[in-house]
Amino acid sequence: MDPQGSVVCGADVLYRASSYGVFLMPDGSRRAHYGLDFYAPDGTEVRSPVAGVVDRVAVVADGKTGGNAVRIKDPTGEYHYAAHMLTPPLVRRGGAVEVGTPLGWVGRTGSAHGTHAHVHYEWRDRWGRVKNPFAAFLRAQGLPPGTRVVRGSISCPGGSLVISSHHTSASEVMATLVKMTFLRSVIIAFRLVASEVPGATPNRPASGLMA
Description:
Layout: E1 8-16, E2 21-24, E3 30-33, E4 36-39, E5 45-47, E6 52-58, E7 68-73, E8 79-85, E9 96-97, E10 102-105, E11 118-124, E12 130-131, H1 134-140, E13 149-154, H2 170-196, E14 209-210
Antiparallel strand pairs: 1-5, 1-13, 2-3, 4-11, 5-10, 6-7, 6-9, 6-14, 7-8, 8-11, 11-12
């Protein structure tokens, strides 16, 4: 299923056709990059570009992965993946989403650490084969087929949502991070206490992929 709107929406969004394919690295090597990078300021909204079911949610802090990411399976069996978000996704595995459902905010987690804030978006068919989404995004936004670079204000899909025109402020993002850090501290403290209780079996650490 084609994406029905931009996965990133806000006042200053940039993506380009050359983002998809093979990059020529400074050392002369080539690197495959089968997705589109949507650049935007930290905290810019990330929305679901399709309706479907959340197939996978990842919360990973290392620098070798997609970081905070989510994958959605649409009604045709195709997959839509958004990575490097600022905080863990706002949706849970198995939950239903619509076009425009908030997923999180633009960040630079995982392998994007140290780079410009962006969201990496991948589109794969039901067999896992990658598809170039650039032309589909142009169609969704009513842009000419020959456009190579898109930059400017992009409206959030699902405009009927109350927060569709809301741009998350830095203070709101920070408040979310503080809440999540506090909850994580409580969980760690609970596990430490449980591990010291005779006969108790402490919970195993959560893996990067969360249900």
